[in-house]
Structure formats: structure tokens, C-alpha cells
UniProtKB/TrEMBL annotation:
InterPro entries: Mitochondrial_18_kDa_protein (IPR019560). PANTHER family: MITOCHONDRIAL FISSION PROCESS PROTEIN 1. Belongs to the MTFP1 family. It comes from Mya arenaria (Soft-shell clam). This is Mitochondrial fission process protein 1.
Length: 149
């Protein structure tokens, strides 16, 4: 959730801190892809060629799923929620700039738990409808993307 928190604090901190939150999230995505690739590599395959292909699919699936579900879509969503909140609350002349920034940060942080499940389900649907049509049955046995795994 590093980049979502970074986006929520965008109005409070230097943009490089927000960018670094995306770096942290991206490291997690790559680490998970490596982990899923190792899990796939530990399974028994009929040949080394098939093993290499299945490991590649597992890594690619994880990079794509995590990239969308953990970095791109949530970051964009919190960014837009905060931008809309800033616009709407900024129209009120009674709110001090400091209070406005903290209110927007609070709104962004409060939205994080509510966006996770719909985003995960949407990414699952997109992946099942596109990428996983090619190697789906095998990938489902190897790669399981859940927030609690």
C-alpha cells in the first residue's frame, strides 16, 4: 500500500517522496514475481523446456496482476480521489490551506481499504478475460493472487 499512502500524502510532501513510494511498491511487485517463479520452478514438469515456459508464465502473470492491482490502478484511484477532494473542498473559502491539505490526506487514507477488493476483482476479471486465456489452467494452479498470501 506504499504508493496509495504516498498519493494520499501528495499534498503534504515533496513529489520525490511520492515517487519513492512507487519505487517501494514496484520492489514488492518484482519480489512477488520472483517468489511465484520460484514456486513454479519447484513443481515437477515433464521437461526443462516446459518448466521454463511455465515459470515464465507465472512470473509474467504475477508482474501484470500485481502491477495493475497493487501499483497502477490503486495509485491512480487515490490520486484522483484526492484531486477531486481538493477541488471540491477548495471551493469553500472557509477552509484554511493547511486544514484542506490534511483533510484531503485523511480522505485519501480512509479510501484505501474500500478500493482494494473492487480493484482486485476487476483485475482478476481482466486477467481471466485476456492474459490467462492463453495459459490459464496451469497458471491458476501455480499463481494465486490474494492479499493475504
Amino acid at each position: 500500500y506504499a504508493n496509495e499512502v504516498g498519493e494520499a500524502f501528495r499534498s503534504q510532501v515533496h513529489v520525490n517522496i511520492v515517487r519513492s513510494s512507487y519505487g517501494v511498491a514496484s520492489v514488492y511487485v518484482v519480489a512477488d514475481a520472483i517468489h511465484k517463479g520460484r514456486e513454479a520452478g519447484m513443481k515437477t514438469w515433464p521437461s526443462e523446456d516446459i518448466k521454463r515456459i511455465k515459470v515464465g508464465w507465472a512470473v509474467a502473470d504475477t508482474l501484470l496482476w500485481q502491477g495493475l492491482a497493487s501499483v497502477i490502478i490503486p495509485g491512480f484511484t487515490i490520486n484522483r480521489i484526492c484531486a477531486l477532494s481538493t477541488y471540491l473542498l477548495g471551493r469553500s473559502r472557509k477552509m484554511s490551506p493547511s486544514f484542506l491539505k490534511w483533510t484531503v490526506t485523511g480522505i485519501g487514507l480512509a479510501c484505501i481499504p474500500f478500493i482494494i477488493e473492487p480493484i482486485d476483482r476487476s483485475v482478476d476479471y481482466i486477467m481471466e478475460s485476456t492474459f490467462r486465456k492463453f495459459e490459464g489452467p496451469i497458471i491458476k494452479k501455480i499463481v494465486k493472487h490474494h492479499r493475504n498470501d
